[in-house]
Amino acid sequence: MTVMTKTDLNEAIAATALVLTALQNTLAGQTGAIGAQTNFLCGQLATNGATELYAGGYQFWFDLQNCFESAQQAGATFEAMTAVLTVANTLTPTGRPAIAVKNFAIRMTLMEQARILAATIFTSRQQLDNYFSQIDASLQAAELVAADNLDNVAYTLLINVHAAVSNDLATRAFTLPQMVTYSFPTRLPSLLMAQRLYQDASRSDQLIAENSPIHPLFMPATGEALSV
Question: For residue range 51-77, what is the model confidence (pLDDT) as tens digits?
């Protein structure tokens, strides 16, 4: 049995600390109990991680997985999880334990992003396509790493998640409207613009969300709107 060196252990724990901080940041700005469980779990692993990892690792990986799942359940967004993915991808470990932490963090982030997308209600096909292009590229990269490492278990899991996300989003894309470009001679209030485009002034909030005007009374003369 290979004994973990102190150098390898310290590198793995340092990598874990960066990942845990990134996970806690996914709930930054939230108050009350919503992020308390995630902060507790991350803090507990930060304290006990070295002991758990040195003891064989089972409890360590279980606790790290719980941190990811807790963040997602507490309301972490796809974009917030992308920040975690960025942190994990920028790690440059040399020892096997830290490499394992990096790969595990990337895979868990992708699992949670897949869950987030499954629960997301999209308003347009372009919005859905944008999210899919991001997770598609990330999953392909993770699959390549697993294949290169001959990690059949991780590779199969990633392939299955990739297929599930692709099928889900492709199915839902058929029911979504496209984004189109509108153009008016001058700036108009959002209510009037919605009335002219959809014969429904109540849809002004959609136009505001898509175009981020300085003020709803002065919508951009040219912008984006849902096709239907």
Answer: 999 888 889 999 999 999 999 999 999
C-alpha separations of 13 from 43, 47, 67, 88, 119 in Å = 13, 10, 15, 13, 32
Give helix 96-118 / helix 152-173 axis angle, nearest 10°. 20
Report the alpha-carbon distance of residue 102 to residue 95 in Å, rounded. 11
Length of the chain: 228
pLDDT digits (tens, 9 = 90+) for 4-29: 899 999 999 999 999 999 999 999 87
Gap between the Cα atoms of 211 and 222, Å rounded: 9
Q: Which two tokens stand for residue 81?
A: 């999880």
161-193, pLDDT tens digit by residue? Answer: 999 999 999 999 888 777 788 888 889 899 888
For residues 107 and 145, give the distance between their C-alpha atoms in angstroms, rounded to a whole number: 10
- Residues with Cβ within 8 Å of residue 57, at least 6 apart in sequence: none
Q: What is the DSSP letter of 178?
A: P
3-state secondary structure of 30: coil
